[in-house]
């Protein structure tokens, strides 16, 4: 009874991982396309500037 269900699910985890990697690659390509299309590059730069300035401000305002 259980042997039949185990044989049917063999290789399913590999297929699921492959689909997850495919979706992640598609999302990464969409983000790269958006970022290099012109409008995204400035927004990403502004985001990094904001994040790094916030980190440096917090680091310089720490009290021992």
Order of helices and strands: HHH
Alpha-beta content class = mainly alpha
- How many domains make up the 3D coordinates? 1
Task: State the end-to-end CA separation.
Answer: 65 Å
Give the low-pLDDT segments: none
Total number of helices: 3
The biggest sheet, with number of strands, parallel, antiparallel or mixed sense and barrel status, is: none
Q: Please identify the oligomeric state.
A: single chain
Shape: elongated
What percentage of amino acids are in beta strands? Answer: under 5%
Quick one: how many beta strands?
Answer: 0
Keywords: Membrane, Transmembrane, Transmembrane helix
Transmembrane segments: 17-37
List the helices and strands and how they pair.
Elements (H helix, E strand, L loop, with lengths): L1 H7 L3 H25 L2 H22 L4
Explain how this protein is built.
The chain is mainly alpha-helical and about 60 residues long. It has one domain (about 1-60). It contains three helices and no strands. It is elongated and about 60 Å long. Keywords: Membrane, Transmembrane, Transmembrane helix.
Core attributes:
64 residues; mainly alpha; 3 helices; 84% helix; elongated; transmembrane; membrane; transmembrane helix
Brief summary of the model shown:
The protein has 64 residues and is an all-alpha fold. It has one domain (2-60).
């Amino acid at each position: 009874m259980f042997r039949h269900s185990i044989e049917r699910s063999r290789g399913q985890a590999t297929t699921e991982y492959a689909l997850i990697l495919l979706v992640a690659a598609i999302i990464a390509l969409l983000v790269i396309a958006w970022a290099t299309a012109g409008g995204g590059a400035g927004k990403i730069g502004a985001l990094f500037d904001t994040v790094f300035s916030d980190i440096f401000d917090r680091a310089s305002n720490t009290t021992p």
